[in-house]
Amino acid sequence: MTMNNASTVATMNAAKADTATNTTVTNTATTNTAKGSDMLLELDHISKIYGDLHAVDDLSLTVPEGEWLAIVGSSGSGKTTLMNIIGCMDAPSRGSVALEGRRLEDLNATQLADVRKNVIGLVFQKFYLVPHLTAVENVMMAQYYHSVVDEQQALEALDHVGLKDRAHHLPGELSGGEQQRVCIARALINHPKLILADEPTGNLDETNERIVLDLFRELHGQGTTIIVVTHDALVASCAEREIMLNHGVLVGERWNDEQARLAYEQSGGRPAFTGSSAQDAQHEGTAVDFSDPTKKAKTAGLSE
Ligand SMILES: Nc1ncnc2c1ncn2[C@@H]1O[C@H](COP(=O)(O)OP(=O)(O)OP(=O)(O)O)[C@@H](O)[C@H]1O
Ligand SMILES: [Mg+2]
């Protein structure tokens, strides 16, 4: 079943208007504001615990609006778990997350959905494209849940990631790299304030990796905050700051952009911090060597 025609777009928007009149979707989740902070994102001693496994282990991190942050670390180190928590798709077992000054644990399901829809653009490691919808329809679906469907705009977003010619194909008819770029177009279509990208270039060749990095540079230049998980040292080096996880524990933090570091410190930003006593963990105020064990690996495709 496909829907790539004008009448279907009109039907989607009409259905949307109906839904809008019947649903009270508030955007006023402004209670419980964490006072006195300019940070877009604040993680306060968060852990995610599965049985004996600490997938994320007592991590504190602040990210100001407009920063480009990379999260690196070997497979299983907790990167996706952390992204799911930041992206309001999972809750930490301990600790607190605040986005735009609002503590996520205090929001109800509707308010969390609003944050996901209005603030965040997600590029998933596993894509999660709807298999029976074409590339452009997958992008339009994100428009539908956000506001109004506009097929022309969706096509332009696909053109932006070099996929104009593949717009009317189903995900199953696209290569891994093409599906990844549909996922990126879908994440960016609603102009999110915060982009969370989990291995966004893991399946891309050099040319398409450059297209995506240029796109991120353009968005960062416009003030978008970007948090990217990557196994690729080149992609990580484009970020202003990198943090490294190992077994859920923060083991390193380094700045690639000195000006950004100064601005961060001047605005009251503190180093990322782990309170965990795990071996190799970074403790507050203690410098730790930052070396990237995943430098050569582009492993996203292998863990699918
Ligand atoms: N739902 C779950 N239940 C139990 N354990 C889980 C669950 N989700 C993740 N884990 C475990 O938590 C750890 C961190 O997983 P995560 O997916 O965050 O790693 P990652 O750093 O993203 O790895 P990769 O680079 O391979 O994508 C892994 O050991 C994983 O097996
Ligand atoms: Mg992962």
What does this entry show, briefly?
With 304 residues, the protein is an alpha/beta fold. Helix content is 33%, strand content 22%.
Characterise this structure:
There is one protein chain. By secondary structure, this protein is an alpha/beta fold. It has a single domain, classed as Rossmann fold, CATH 3.40.50.300. 33% of the residues lie in helices and 22% in strands. It has 9 helices and 11 strands. The strands form 2 sheets. It has a 6-stranded mixed beta sheet with strand order 6-7-8-3-9-10, with helices on both faces. It has a 5-stranded antiparallel beta sheet with strand order 5-4-1-2-11. Helix 7 links the parallel strand 7 and strand 8. Helix 4 runs parallel beside helix 6. The longest helix has 17 residues. The C terminus is likely disordered. Bound molecules: adenosine-5'-triphosphate and magnesium ion. The site of magnesium ion (MG) has 4 residues, from helix 2.
Q: Key terms for this structure?
A:
304 residues; globular; binds adenosine-5'-triphosphate; Rossmann fold; disordered C terminus; alpha/beta; six-stranded mixed sheet
CATH class: Alpha Beta
The parts where pLDDT drops under 50 for at least 5 residues are: 19-36, 280-289, 293-304
Tell me the total number of β-strands: 11
Query: What is the CATH T-level topology?
Result: Rossmann fold
Please give the alpha-carbon distance between the first and last residues.
Answer: 26 Å
What's the SSE pattern? Answer: HEEEHEEHEHHHEHEHEEHE
